[in-house]
């Protein structure tokens, strides 16, 4: 089977519409893109769990006519990796944008305070510097207005990885707010155990902050089409 579709997974607080520009560019280049609405991130389901999100991703992978390239942004890089673990025969490649997969038994994305059962966008304080340097004030306001609080059952869900065939699947790390050299150092230094065990890891630079689908959709689509 050849790779027939590119499955796009948004990170925390992002709905499927975050990929609109990228998906349009991919379609222009003849690639079929599927932007997944993750449960709890766009469907109003505040009781959604990490398992629900994995189920939605696998449904998209299984619906494809062949194998899929699964793209995970930020925390959703772990979702992409979990899909590879669950469907190693149907995932042709994993692309990680600005993030790395969490290991088995670890919480998915327990990064910020939970309030009333959800993890709201914490404001720009944690992202000052390279993460948000390419977002102007209007872009920041638009991001905040669209940000979807992540259900606690997603953020604090426990990652489960079982099939070591995932390490045979090629991985591409797209490096926005950090450099390929930094990523290589983190992997070699043991900070990213899952990728340290992966057999094929390529690193691609993109001159962007943490959300290149917002600020560099054409360039990001070009990279995804090439992989």
Automatic annotation (TrEMBL):
It comes from the Bacteria. InterPro entries: AB_hydrolase_1 (IPR000073), AB_hydrolase_fold (IPR029058), Carboxylesterase_BioH (IPR050228). Residues 6-222 form the AB hydrolase-1 domain. It holds the Pfam family Abhydrolase_6. Keywords: Hydrolase. GO terms for molecular function: hydrolase activity. PANTHER family: HYDROLASE ALPHA/BETA FOLD FAMILY (PTHR43194), PIMELOYL-[ACYL-CARRIER PROTEIN] METHYL ESTER ESTERASE (PTHR43194:SF5). This is Alpha/beta hydrolase. It comes from Micromonospora musae.
């Amino acid at each position: 089977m050849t790779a027939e579709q590119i499955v796009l997974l948004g990170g925390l607080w992002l709905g499927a519409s975050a990929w609109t520009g990228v998906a349009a560019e991919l379609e222009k280049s003849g690639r079929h893109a599927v932007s997944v609405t993750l449960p709890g991130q766009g469907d109003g389901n505040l009781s959604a769990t990490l398992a629900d999100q994995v189920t939605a991703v696998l449904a998209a992978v299984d619906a494809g006519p062949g194998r899929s390239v699964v793209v995970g942004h930020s925390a959703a890089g772990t979702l992409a990796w979990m899909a590879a673990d669950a469907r190693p025969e149907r995932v042709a490649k994993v692309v990680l944008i600005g993030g790395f997969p969490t290991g088995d038994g670890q919480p998915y994305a327990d990064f910020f305070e939970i309030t009333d059962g959800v993890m709201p966008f914490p404001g720009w304080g944690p992202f000052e510097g390279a993460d948000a340097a390419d977002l102007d004030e209007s872009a920041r306001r638009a991001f905040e207005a669209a940000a979807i609080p992540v259900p606690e059952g997603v953020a604090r869900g426990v990652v489960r990885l079982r099939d070591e065939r995932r390490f045979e699947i090629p991985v591409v790390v797209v490096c926005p707010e950090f450099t390929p050299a930094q990523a290589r150092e983190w992997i070699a230094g043991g900070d990213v155990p899952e990728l340290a065990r992966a057999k094929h890891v390529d690193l691609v630079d993109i001159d962007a902050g943490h959300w290149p689908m917002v600020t560099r959709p054409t360039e990001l689509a070009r990279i995804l089409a090439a992989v």
